[in-house]
Amino acid sequence: MERKVTLYDTTLRDGTQGEQVNLSAEDKLRIARKLDEFGIHYIEGGWPGSNPKDARFFEMARKTPFEKARLAAFGSTRRPKTRPGDDKNILALLKTECETCTIFGKSWDLHASKILRVSLAENLAMIQDSVAYLKRQGRQVIYDAEHFFDGYKRNRDYAIKTVSTAQEAGADVIVLCDTNGGSMTHEVEAILGEVMPLLRVPVGIHVHNDCGLALSNSLAAVQAGARMVQGTINGYGERCGNVDLISVLGNLQLKMGYECIEPENVSRLTEISRYVSEVANVPPLNQRPFVGKSAFAHKAGVHVSAILKRPEAYEHMDPERVGNRRRVLVSDLSGKSNIEYKTREMDIRLGGNGYDSKKIVDEIKKLEDQGYQFDAAEGSLELLIKKVTGQLEEPFRLESFRVTIEKNRSGPSTSQATIKISVGEEHEITAAEGDGPVNALDNALRKALKKFFPEVQEMGLVDFKVRVIDGSDGTGAKVRVQIESRDSREIWSTIGVSENIIEASWQALVDSVQYKLSKELNGKEADDVMKKSRRETSTADAPSKKGSLRRVLTG
């Protein structure tokens, strides 16, 4: 049996029908180029007859060479009582100049009679005429049998007649669609087993995830003989989404022995998933199989102890095969194994007797009881470990800060921060304005530090999140602030916790800067930076006052 499976990507059309997914024509072209480079066989660019944006995409795509993928234009069968040559949607397909045209038609008699309000005979004629016309124009035609599985379960003979009509009209591929996403895997398997012998052309599968079975149904269809899988990157799509081609590819090629793309490109799965997520401006799903940030993350001490000996004990595959990486998390569930793994990863020295590991675990458990969450803030975690083990010399400390917010009757509010810090024995007092209190503090801190550490000008904040830990105290509740920062080399997260949102923000902000400076100073001659005046401060003990990882800064 043929072991090659064709991947047909519809992210640029079906994927954009999902909530919060909105791509410009330029975004679509960027993604199409990336998918072509990756090795996807077909890229469905959109429905040119439905909106100007898709028409513009195809105009730009005509000037773009695609090396591996075929670009497909999507549309419907002709309208009732209209000749294909006069149908604006059919003509729009031809105008794209795409070699491949994908059209959908109705397989469910309910849709023909109650939605389109045409006779069953006219519905068949619409399929016949549209496929045959596009074939006469020299196009490869992929026919999507919309609602095929629902139609088959309610009127088997008519559903089969619709795909047979498309086949006789010259369709090159017939794709059976579970458009409502309601079919069970055993139904898909059984129906393909009955339909496959009736069709001479290659068969594809197109399923939605409304019952959480899109992946299962797609894999079952391939095992039953389907050789094209339609889906989207990251499973974007209407309602609960389409099948995720990332998971389809991972399972078919790495688990089931099918060939989808060139083997050397499988290691780019994580890159492709995150690239599309970035362009679509949709946060990556951490729990996404194969490529999610949490896909190979380990938190429980027992698990970490095992993977230190044999990774396969708690991992179904090597994460590097799909371009991902193993992550060990540290939390109140951690044991010494977690700490030992993380310190090796961070290149931090520990004592050989395990005492340092126990001290770190105890401190983390105490702080997480107060609301800290270190598995989401590895920058703060690294600083804490260095402090507990006496390996961090903090380059500055806070003496005081003040934030004022002024709001007039009309116009936006303004914020101003005044800050006093010490670097060794030298003091710096600075004020700055900002769009809000945290922004003002950030500006003031950078302004004060750039005299001593110009490196801080290279970093920037990319995300800021606030979460109420326990809302029972109302506006006096403790909050957790997480900040994500970046420079030209990496992205890191830091955290702060307090009943005062400004204080929590300050903690996270200072950790962010401390992390950056600790990296810059590591391996350099820190004495040159600090030579003006060096303070003697012990950092052997971790901060212990309630609600603050940063209390050591205040003396």
Descriptive account of the structure:
- This protein has 555 residues and is an alpha/beta fold.
- The chain has three domains: 6-261, Aldolase class I (TIM Barrel); 297-388, no CATH class; 401-554, Alpha-isopropylmalate synthase LeuA, regulatory domain (Double Stranded RNA Binding Domain, 2-Layer Sandwich), CATH 3.30.160.270.
- 37% of the residues lie in helices and 19% in strands.
- Strands 1-2-3-4-5-6-7-8 form an eight-stranded parallel β-barrel, surrounded by nine helices. Strands 11-12-13 form a three-stranded antiparallel β-sheet, with helices on one face. The chain has a three-stranded antiparallel β-sheet with strand order 14-15-16.
- Helix 1 runs antiparallel to helix 11 (269-280) and helix 6 (148-154) crosses helix 7.
- The longest helix is centred in the C-terminal third of the chain and has 21 residues, at 501-521.
- The model is unreliable at 525-555 (pLDDT under 50).
Briefly summarize what is shown:
The protein is α/β, with parallel strands linked by helices and 555 residues long.
Feature tags:
555 residues, alpha/beta, Double Stranded RNA Binding Domain, three-stranded antiparallel β-sheet
The CATH class of the largest domain is Alpha Beta
CATH superfamily of the largest domain: Aldolase class I
Q: Estimate nothing, just give the exact number of structural domains.
A: 3
What class do helices, strands and sheet pairing give?
Answer: alpha/beta
Specify the CATH architecture of the largest domain: Alpha-Beta Barrel
Averaged pLDDT: 87
Largest sheet: 8 strands, parallel, barrel
